[in-house]
Design a protein that fits this description.
Blueprint: H1 13-30, H2 48-68, H3 77-88, H4 102-115, E1 119-123, H5 129-137, E2 142-146, E3 161-163, E4 180-184, H6 190-199, E5 204-207, H7 227-231, E6 239-243, E7 246-250, H8 255-263, E8 264-269, H9 274-277, E9 285-289
Parallel strand pairs: 1-2, 1-4, 2-3, 4-5
Antiparallel strand pairs: 5-9, 6-7, 8-9
Helix pairs in contact: 2-3, 3-4, 4-5, 6-8
Length: about 300
């Protein structure tokens, strides 16, 4: 890509002035934010020392997270972060709201490079950015994409198999899931997804939107219980919160929550990377389930 070129065109100067002077204040009075529809990675350092510092800081945190999760990436995270820095500039999906931003996409890329799955089950496709990220990380993997509504796709992987339904409604009996990974970004109870995955022989999982109980009130459209809520030490007292005028409750002793908690052998929530990169925080969590032997 030529130096200074933008794969996702920036707003026209006249439209940007209109947004700032007229439309922005109008939407502000109505209680909404009007922002340019460009991805966060369109904003990036251009000078060498700052770019190198960002890559090194992100790699250091990712190395620590991989070690804490019991995962290994040959050569460490730094080469993968440097490769991703170049790749993301040409991503075919530009999303400003919803889905993954730079940090979530980077974590997913590095995790998939470390896991090296032969099969990837993706539940929650949205516009297709994460499918593209996983394809860059695992060029030879078989990818199965599940989402009840695929009309919003902006990227369709030519080798992936797409299903316009929930993944739990699909028979995976013909697949060897020994080296498979499930990626869940679908706003469905993460306890339910844990139990579904274990029932189908899928034991290596990655979850997005894994908010802790004390932060759930600030999370848009949370799926609960999250992995953080399942593994957190807690008495039987229910967790209650209010969002957009509605009250919610999670009971740790719910049978589904208890079963999912017992199925989790290990989990690790990755650093949100905001301090390293300046981009919006993310909530990616790695989960390993117990096998039938209980390991």
């Amino acid at each position: 890509m030529p130096h200074g070129a933008h794969p996702h065109p920036l707003p026209h100067p006249l439209l940007e002035r209109l947004r700032r002077r007229l439309l922005g204040p109008l939407f502000d009075r109505l209680g909404y934010d009007l922002v340019p529809a460009v991805p966060d990675w369109a904003h990036r350092p251009l000078s060498g020392p700052e770019t190198a510092a960002l890559i090194a800081a992100a790699a250091a945190r990712l190395d620590a997270d991989l070690a804490a999760a019991g995962l290994a990436l040959p050569g460490g995270a730094h080469p993968a972060v440097a490769a991703f820095w170049e790749l993301i500039a040409a991503a075919p999906v530009a999303q400003r709201r919803g889905g993954n931003g730079f940090n979530g996409a980077l974590q997913l890329y590095v995790l998939m490079r470390a896991l090296r799955p032969r099969v990837i089950v993706e539940s929650g496709v949205f516009r297709g950015l994460t499918t593209w990220v996983m394809r860059q990380a695992c060029p030879e993997a078989e990818i199965l994409c599940f989402d009840p509504d695929l009309t919003g796709l902006r990227y369709r992987d030519p080798r992936a198999r797409y299903h316009a339904r929930d993944w739990s409604a699909c028979d995976l009996g013909g697949l060897d899931l020994t080296d498979a990974v499930g990626f869940f970004d679908d706003h469905i109870s993460q306890a339910r997804r844990v139990l579904e995955a274990r029932a189908r022989g899928l034991h290596r999982l990655v979850f997005d939107d894994d908010a802790a109980a004390h932060r759930l009130h600030a999370h848009g459209g949370p799926a609960f219980p999250t992995i953080a809520m399942l593994v957190a030490p807690r008495s039987g007292e229910p967790v209650r919160w209010r969002r957009n005028g509605r009250e919610f409750v999670y009971r740790p002793d719910d049978p589904e929550a208890r079963a999912a908690r017992a199925a989790i052998a290990a989990s690790h929530a990755f650093d949100d990377l905001h301090a390293a990169t300046g981009y919006s925080p993310t909530r990616i969590t790695w989960v390993r389930l117990r096998t039938e032997e209980g390991a």
